[in-house]
Here is the input.
Amino acid sequence: MLTFNELSLIGPLLKNLKTLGYESPTAIQAASIPLLLEGHDLLGIAQTGTGKTAAFCLPILQKLTIQDDTGIRALIIAPTRELATQIHLSFEQYGQGLGLTSLAIYGGVEQKSQVRALREGVDILVATPGRLLDLMEQGLLRLGKIQMLVLDEADRMLDMGFIEDLHTIIQSLPSDRQSMFFSATMPGPVAALSKKILNDPKRVEVSPNSSTVLKIEQKVIFCKREDKFQLLRKLLKQEDRELVVVFTKTKNSADKIKEYLRFHRIAATVFHGDKSQEDREKALFNFKNGSMKILIATDIAARGIDIQGVSHVINFELPMEAENYVHRIGRTARAGNSGTAITFCEESEKGILERIQKLIQLKLPTETFKGTSEAPGIWLQEGSVRQVTAPTPGKSQEKSVYIDHSKRQKVVVAKKHPGFKNRNKKK
Here is the structure.
């Protein structure tokens, strides 16, 4: 088995990798690191969870360490603030003791602290396209010293509408640079962008079959739409689990699941686009340190969130796109560890399940769950007792009775159940 010692990495990097518990490189690391150390441009096609962050971080750190220069020399562009933050953290971990500084800049927060850090001096800049271009246009950021450029998750950046921003940014960079381009898929526009950025690149491809997917114990549980909540509660209480990520399609579903679990005294935190940046960072912090064992998230967390110790991924609802299934389950089985992915599938979702199995070229084992009738629940909301019907995913807002924090709607109170007693009523 190949080791990091055989990849021509310098001693301090090898020491940091050993401290982090990394024993041997993943497929994309073993293929990419030697090419990047030799100075080649790289086109990397790899799903999340394959170790691609270390594949570009380690060569960048090594090259900058042996240089006698200052200023922003490496630029990594990522589609989301969460991914940018994670890449920045990776640079700090891998580069411990090397004397290099990195910074993540992104929108959704005040720019003052980011500008102050830039003025103090940065070697490695990790940025989302919007904030990067904004600071460039204000004259607060100059990229004339860039020697290495990384575009991470390029396909997602194009999906999010960043194509024009990327062209503007890249035109301002020195042409004499080493470029790295990573994408999970290569549709036409992504391929065209890679040709504009890369110069005679080496191509490294890691398919989902040979990476994350086969390391994960996967199964599908067929059930009715209304039984998914019971099934989730049962699994969370019975499974031998550490950290669990529960994925939904919508923010409303994520909020409903949290309220349902809270009623049943199961603590969970929520991560989705309607949450403020502060709330999202707090949710991730509590999940990473283990004070919250369950993270309920939309697909905003499916790519770029690298959290060690996730033992289970539960797909409460199947994603709209088959590729997102691979991104979701890639939250477990990180850094060579094993993991479990459990998918709930109702009748209307069988079509997307077929597309997922075709993509990963794997027939997933199946079970069937039949729930029992649940009476309307009493959900606690800020000290008051309210009776609402048990939430059912997929219903319209007009028909469903639930507490929707994301849109700050008023709580709709259902008619009293015959056995309901108001615990707030004074005796």
Observations:
- The first strand starts at residue 42 and ends at 46.
